[in-house]
Write a structure and sequence with these properties.
Length: 138
C-alpha cells in the first residue's frame, strides 16, 4: 500500500480546499478500514485526482446533501429558473428573426425596443433567482 501524495501518472494529487480565509480544518476524524476497503478508497480517490481525505470529505458531504428532504421553495425557484431559461430562448429566437428582417429590408421593426426591454426584465429576474438559490444551497 502506498500513501504517497503523488501519483506518478497524473502528477500531484489535489488537496481539499482550505476553509475561507486560508484556515485549515482543525478537527480530525479517524476511522478504521480493512485492506480491501483502503485499496478501494485509495483507487477511487486517485482516479478522481484527490487525496484520500479530500475524496472522503467530498463523498460524505455529497451523501449528506442527497439525504436532505426537498425544500419546496428551492423546487419553486428551480422551476422559475427553467421558465426564465425558456423565455430567454424564445426572446433570442425572436431577436434573430427581427435582425434578419432588419438586414433584409434595411429597417428596424418597432417591436425591437419592447423585446429588448422584456429580455432585460427576464434576465434580471433570473439573476435574482440565482442569487436566492446560492444563499440557500449548502
Amino acid at each position: 500500500m502506498t500513501t504517497s501524495r503523488q501519483n506518478s501518472e497524473s502528477g500531484p494529487l489535489q488537496r481539499r480546499a482550505k476553509l475561507g480565509g486560508g484556515r485549515r480544518r482543525e478537527r480530525e476524524l479517524r476511522i478504521r478500514v480493512s485492506d480491501v476497503e483502503y485499496e478501494e478508497i485509495h483507487e477511487a480517490a486517485t482516479g478522481a485526482g484527490l487525496a484520500c481525505s479530500a475524496f472522503i470529505v467530498r463523498t460524505v458531504r455529497t451523501a449528506i446533501r442527497e439525504q436532505r428532504p426537498l425544500d419546496g421553495e428551492l423546487v419553486a425557484l428551480h422551476a422559475e429558473l427553467r421558465n426564465a431559461s425558456r423565455q430567454v430562448n424564445a426572446v433570442g429566437v425572436n431577436l434573430n428573426q427581427l435582425v434578419r428582417h432588419a438586414n433584409t429590408y434595411n429597417e428596424v421593426p418597432e417591436s425591437v425596443q419592447w423585446l429588448a426591454a422584456y429580455c432585460f426584465q427576464v434576465v434580471r429576474r433570473a439573476e435574482a433567482v440565482i442569487v436566492e438559490l446560492s444563499r440557500r444551497l449548502p
